[in-house]
Structures are given as C-alpha cells and as structure tokens.
Amino acid sequence: MRVYVPLTLSGLAAAHRAGEVGPGPLTAYAVTPALREWYVSDDIEELEYAALNRAASASLRLIAGDPGVARRRVVVAVDVPDGAAVADPDHILDASSLGEVTIASAVALTKAAAVHADSDEAGEDVTAAAAALGAADLGDDDAQFTVDGAEDHELLWFGIQEIPNLIG
C-alpha cells in the first residue's frame, strides 16, 4: 500500500540520517474507503494524488507549528505492507482526517518510492499560508484564500537518491 507521510525539510533530514521515517506511530495519508467516497473516483492515480494533497496540507500544519523550519512542504511516498496503515474508525466521518492512517512503527527509507517537495519559489506563499492557517481554521475567508495560495503550488517529484540535495 502506498502512503504519504507529511514532513518538513528538517524532518526529512532527520529521516535521511536515521535511514528511516519515524519513530512510530506515524500519521500518513492513503487511499482509504472514506477518501474514495469523498473524492468519488475510481481512478487510482487521481485518488493517490488526493491523498498526496492531504499529506501536503498536513505538512503545512507541521510548518505552521514550528517557526524554525524551512517553509517548504515535504511529503514522502512510502510503500508499506497491506494492513500496516490503519484508519481510525472514530475519525471516518471527520472531513479533516479523510485519508488519514496510522503506521505503528518507523518505516525504512529504502521503502520510499519518492519525495515530493515545494520548489524554492513556493516559499513565500507557504510562509503566508502557515501564518494564516489558524485564522482559516476559524472560518476567515481571506485567510483561507491565502492558505489556498500555497496549495496552488504543485509539489515536485524527487527520487530518494536526491534527498541529500534537497536537505543540503
């Protein structure tokens, strides 16, 4: 099963040093039954893209919570055995947790398929979005517009061998 783990650049650096994404439990995003129902598509690529975007939003929340980290969203796509990623049945109806799964333990970085990250050009919009996130959560339409500005940036694809250049 492919899961998308939200990180920051410093989190990616730590994972690179440790050789694993962790420690567990890890929050990740995947194509869950609830995500399928919400997205209303049978196209697995579209569904995986939706899960990736959910993880990118979670990465933005990590950035907002730590003013010291670089203002670039990072998501690691990892392949885990079926059943290793478990959706919380208490959150199935919660729109903010669509596609959210928990992985009990750390995952070896060798299981990663790719890293998705913002370009340097997204930094200004990601910075503004991180600052506006709290107000957007409270229903401020202008703040939500700012948050959406970060989401307009497509995450770039990087091979695992490119991690040293990303965190450099």
Can you tell me about this structure?
The chain is α+β, with helices and mostly antiparallel strands and 168 residues long. The protein has 6 helices and 9 strands. The chain has helices at 9-18, 33-39, 44-64, 123-137, 141-151, 163-167; strands at residues 2-7, 20-21, 26-29, 74-79, 85-86, 100-103, 107-108, 112-117, 156-158. The strands form 3 sheets. A 4-stranded antiparallel beta sheet has the order 1-4-8-9. A 3-stranded antiparallel beta sheet has the order 3-6-5. Helix 3 packs across helix 4 (123-137) and helix 4 (123-137) packs antiparallel against helix 5 (141-151). The chain starts with a strand and ends with a helix. 36% of the residues are buried.
Biggest sheet architecture: 4 strands, antiparallel
Q: What would you call the shape? A: globular
Q: Class by helix and strand content?
A: alpha+beta
Strand element count: 9
Amount of beta strand: 15-25%
Helix content: 40-55%
N- to C-terminal distance: 30 Å
Computed Rg: 15 Å
Order of helices and strands: EHEEHHEEEEEHHEH
Strand order within the widest beta sheet: 1-4-8-9
Give the assembly state of these chains: single chain
Number of helices: 6
List low-pLDDT spans. Answer: none
- Global mean pLDDT: 92
Question: Helix and strand layout, with pairings?
Answer:
Blueprint: E1 2-7, H1 9-18, E2 20-21, E3 26-29, H2 33-39, H3 44-64, E4 74-79, E5 85-86, E6 100-103, E7 107-108, E8 112-117, H4 123-137, H5 141-151, E9 156-158, H6 163-167
Antiparallel strand pairs: 1-4, 2-7, 3-6, 4-8, 5-6, 8-9
